[in-house]
Structures are given as C-alpha cells and as structure tokens.
Write a structure and sequence with these properties.
The complex is a heterodimer of chains A (about 300) and B (about 300). Chain A contains twelve helices and no strands. Chain A has about 300 residues and is an all-alpha fold. Chain A folds into two domains: about 60 residues; about 220 residues, MetI-like fold. Chain A is globular and about 70 Å long. With about 300 residues, chain B is mainly α. Chain B has a single domain, classed as MetI-like fold. Helix content of chain B is about 75%, strand content about 0%. Chain B has 14 helices and two strands; from the N terminus they run H-H-E-H-E-H-H-H-H-H-H-H-H-H-H-H. Chain B has a two-stranded antiparallel ribbon with strand order 1-2. Chain B is globular, with a radius of gyration of 24 Å. Chain B starts with a helix and ends in a 5-residue tail after the last helix. The chains are: A mainly alpha (about 300), B mainly alpha (about 300). Chains A and B meet through helix 1, helix 4, helix 5, helix 6 and helix 7 of A and helix 1, helix 2, helix 5, helix 6 and helix 7 of B.
Chain lengths: ~300, ~300
Amino acid sequence: MSGNVVQRVQRVQGVRGVRRFVRRPWRLAAEVSALVIAAVVAFPLYWMVLSAFKPAGEIESSEPRPWTLEPSLDSFRRVFGQQEFGRYFLNSLVVACSVVVVSALIAFLAATAVTRFRFRFRTTLLIMFLVAQMVPVEALTIPLFFQMRDFGLLNTLGSLILPHIAFSLPFAIWMLRGFVKAVPEALEEAAYIDGASRSRFLWQILFPLVFPGLVATSVFSFISAWNDFLFAKSFIISDTSQSTLPMALLVFYKPDDPDWGGVMAASTVMTIPVLVFFVLVQRRLVSGLGGAVKD
Amino acid sequence: MRVGRGLSRSSSRPLARSSVPWLYLAPALVVLGGLLLYPVYQLGLISFFQYTQAQVSGGQPTTFEGLANYREIFSDSQFWQVLLATVLFAAACVVSTLSVGCALAVLLTRVRALPRLALMLAALGAWATPAVTGSTVWLLLFDPDFGPVNRVLGLGDHSWTYGRLSAFLLVLLEVVWCSFPFVMVTVYAGIRAVPAEVLEAASLDGASQLRVWRSVLAPMLRPILVVVTIQSVIWDFKVFTQIYVMTNGGGIAGQNLTLNVYAYQQAFASSQYSLGSAIGIVMLLILLAVTLVYLRLLRRQGEEL
C-alpha cells in the first residue's frame, strides 16, 4: 500500500521532471519574447526622450540614428522659454489633482451605497453608471460650453475641473464596487457591535481598507484630466494664463511643419508626472485591478 | 447577512434606514445630474433646433426644426461612410487590443520575475503616456522624412497618413499600444487571483494544459474578460484625440473621420451645432444599444450586478 503511494509519488515527480525538462526551452523562448516585446513597447518612449535631447540637426535628418553623441538641452530651453510654460504645468497639475481627490471621495461614498445597501432602484442606478460611461464627451462640449458660460466659469480652471469630475465618476464608482465588496461584512457587524457610529465605520475602517482601490481608480481620473485638450481648447478661449499642458504642446505641433524637438521635449515633460504617478501606484494598481473584477 | 440586517433595521427604522444610501449617493447624483445628465438633455434639445453661429451670438432666434437635422445627416452619404468606418475601426481596435493584451497576460504568467518586470514596466509606460504625446511620438516614428520606421522597413518617403487605410492602421497601432496594458494587467491580475490549489488539483486529476484553460481558467476569468471587453468597446468607439491629432482633424478630405471627430468638426469647425449634436445623439444611442445587449447577456448568464 505505502510502497504503491511512494511509487505513485515518484511517477508524478518523474513526469514533472520530464515536463520541466521539456518546458525549459519553451520558457526560455517565452522569456526572450517577453524581453523583445518589452523593448518594442518601450521603444516609442525611448525615441521620445532621445529626440528631446537630440540637437536640432540630428532630429531632422534623413538618417535617424537610435542614439545621440551630443545631447543638448536646446529643445527643453525652447519649451520652457515659451510663454508661461511653468504656469501651464502648474495649471494641469491643479486640475488633475482636484479631479482625483474630489472624484475619489464622491465615488467612495457612492460605491459604498451601492454595494453595502439594498434599496430600490439600486440595479437601475448601477446600469445608469454604466450607461453614463458611454456618453461621448466630445459631443457634450457643445452644451457644456453654454453651461460653463452661464456659470461664469469660462476661462477658469473650474471649467476644466467640474466636467472632468463628472466624467470620471461613473468609471470610478464601477471600479470601486469590487474593493468595497471585498471588505468582509463581519467587520462591519463587529464595528457596530463595538459601538462605532456609521460615519466612524465609514471613514476610520472602510476608507483605509478601500484606499488601495481608490489609488487604482484615481489613475484613470488623473489620466483623463491630465490628457484633456478638448475642454481646454474649447473653454479657455481668451485667458491663456489658464491654459494647460496639452495646449502648450500643440503650439509646437504644426501639422505642416512641426518643431519635432520642441514637441518631443514638451511630450517628455508632460509624460513624466504620469509615469511617476504610475510607478508609485504600480503595485496597488495590479492588485487593485485584480480585486476590482474578482468579486 | 447584508440583506438580513437591512430587513431587520428597516422594520424598526424604515425611513432612517432607507435614506442612508441616498445620503451617500447624493454628491455623486448631484454632480452627474448637473454635469452629465443635464448636458445630455441639452444636447438632445439642440439637435431638434436650428442652431448655428447666428443663434449662438443671439443674432437670430432659435427655431424648432423637429427631426430636420436627423433627416439631413441620414441623407448625407458622408455620414454613412463615417459610421461604417467608425464601427470597423472600433471593432479592429477592440479585437487587436484584446488579443494582444490576453496573449501577453498569459506570457507574463510563464516567465520569471525579471522579464515579467521588464514587460510590466514597458506596458505601464505605454499606458501612462498621454494620448496627445503618444500620438505625436507615433507620428514622428512613422514620419516619412525623419522617422526610423520607414528607414528600417526600407519604405523611402512613403507617407502613412496619406492613404486612408494606412492612416487608420497607424492610428490603430497607437491605440493598441496605449490600451493593451489595461487588458494585460487586468487579465494577468485575474489569472494570479485563481487559487493555486485549484490548478494543482486539476493537474493532479490529470487535466491537460488545454483542459485546464478551457474548463478551469476560462470560466473563472469570464467576469474579467467581460469587463475588459465592454471597456474596450466603450473606449475604442470614442477614440478622439488620436484621430484628431494624428490625421490632423480627420485626414485628407475627411477620409479618416470617426463619428466622434465628425460631430466635433460639424459643431465647431462648421458652426453647425445642431448637426453636431444630432450626430452625438446617434452615437450615444448606438453605444446604449451595445450596453443593453451586454447587460442582457450578463442577466442571461445569471450574473449579478
């Protein structure tokens, strides 16, 4: 009996050993292709940074080389020398951060409501949140323009912040549901038995537990606000001191005769904050997305 | 347990109990009502009126036109062309993004830490790149005069944005590049979330790799796949920045217009606000139909929201 078991274990191990042996070249192939794909995916970013540092003559050469021997800061100087570039950078940051913080708080409350409570119209609301994501933002520029004019918000950062909060909410609520759901009901019970009030449970227990999820969702709000150039283009019409980065970038990009050095330097400056944000939240993002859809 | 508590409390304090979720929802509903629902209503309204520059400046009164705007776009052959291009382009984007994303997610589970980190970081970089900068960088890569791609492929000064298909292909590449990471990371996280015991049990029971994929992983990953598919459909149907920047507002003679850009161009470039609004409404209805089909499917599979 026991010998039989030993034999079986040995056989299983043998099979595994064979498999491992057979698999090794496959894994090597997989790893090599992973590295090659990583290089291909990263290449556009490399080219962007490279072109930003290339001296003017080298960018506009018919023999582009994937390196430069004379890195220069000329393009960056041109970008920062542009009228109030720092100001635009700051404006973009203010818009993106306000959107992230406000929409995260609102979405947290709403996600708690739709996952922790059963009430009439709950499912209807969820469907509405899904449907709200379908709304083509660009088409809404027309009525939003009139609305911002009536609010007296044209030419202010508020005209960029408010619509972006609204547009990032549905997805944020939709994503956060999974995180709120993942917090065990028993914890809530225990908190109430220990005499915690509802708001105490909400802010001191649930909020910290859901925080990683909030970080993961905030990536999306941050990107949409940071990337926007349509609202900036449509709502900031006369006061250029309220303009944002994408608008500044497009100053260098004239379709007929683009200043590639300037465009790439501005692109680099614009991409860095998002990259930093991503690297900071990377771990939480990966586990977060898994949690969000695991249910 | 959730239901149980709700019931017991609601019997003692019905009003207080049922008002709590609405209290939590209030800020979201106010914001969405004021800045999403109301503009959509306005959009619908504008689409029924004659609304051009004259009406915006107040020079002429707005007149109710009924369905005239819709009749106009439906009888415009360019609209149908744009609609067809939009559907095909979005479908191509969704299929490519999903296949690349899923394939790389599986690849991630097969490699050791270092190649995995490399691929993950590269993907995060692509994901983090703002749409505007991504578009300009890809344009430079494929630039006929200064781009490295034409040199490597030996294409001389072939212009990618000149031909209709090649311009769409270029935009598609950029869209896939910046949207596959979401699919890859999500699906990878989903595969990782499958308990190791389940896979071990399956292989101990003698299930083949293929069998494990089909009978264990696929059903467990289905909710994730549904989520990434519907998100991709939503995002890819609404691609705006890439088309707008890379094809310079819709390509030569509007050959690369998609509905979204077309609506914007009608409204802001031609000052036909009502036509632009009508196109926006048509687009909204199409996406709504897609959502309803998706919800119906979810329901039929007995899944709960």
